[in-house]
Amino acid sequence: MIPxxxxxxxxxxxxxxxxxxxxxxxxxxxxxxxVNEFSSLDVDGRLLAAEGESIVCLPGGSIFCRCLVTSFxxxxxxxxxxxxRPDQPLEGLIVEASGIADPRxxxxxxxxxxxxxxxxxxxxxxxxxxxxxxxxxxxxxxIAAQIEASHLAIVNKVDLFSEARLVEVEAAVREIHPAIxxxxxxxxxxxxxxxxxxxxxxxxxxxxxxxxxxxxxVVWKAERPVDVDRLLARIREAGSDxxxxxxxxxxxxxxxxxxxxxxxxxxxxxxEGASCTELALIVRPGSEESVRLLLS
Length: 296
Description:
- By secondary structure, the protein is an alpha/beta fold.
- It has helices spanning 15-25, 43-49, 69-83, 106-112, 133-136, 141-149, 163-176, 228-237, 288-295; strands at 2-9, 31-37, 54-59, 92-96, 119-128, 152-155, 181-184, 216-222, 242-250, 255-260, 265-269, 277-283.
- It is built from 9 helices and 12 strands.
- The protein is globular, with a radius of gyration of 19 Å.
């Protein structure tokens, strides 16, 4: 069977960074990757496409919600059919779930669809952002669900926080899952074997509804050049209305990739250099129009 590893973690925690690290470290192995975006704008897939590996993108919701799970199941079957051959077996599949995913249903899904005859779930890995975890764990239930389902928690961005904060976060993680393995990291720079077999987790979950009441999506686009400093200031001005913002900003001179989370804001030159601005934002429900007006 094909080893399957699932990467979870709240918005902006570092899932795509970890996936990029895994791609680089295991280049040359016959691995496949599936990237799920909650937004309809496929930002992560465009970033990882430059790696030149076998990457399937599935935007527009969570792979464990009723509206997208059928597409997810179809993609899992197609990946096995396309890449797993007797003379060249697929060495593993890594799935990056969206930041709002509740992965507790994964075992049930594999069994119900008989995909457990094709795939062997080796590990569920959750990435924790110390900047948002303590604030949001009690108000956004999927954050705790990701920890509950995981074998390993990676507390990321540790260079940005005090030792006291990190100890508090790790204690909160263990309140949810006392036996979970915890590793600290900066920029997800760890030596990780995602296919190392770990003990089965007796977890149970339900498929999420198509419209998760805790989150809303906004895609903001601009054809004209954008002042990136002004844009980032407006995003910060929105405060808790915006959980995450990421995408490509065209300044007139260059295209930047920006990433805004609770812990940090980054901007760097984008390799593809599109001459327009496209941002994917995950926001508090009810704030969609005010966020659009603020950014315009």
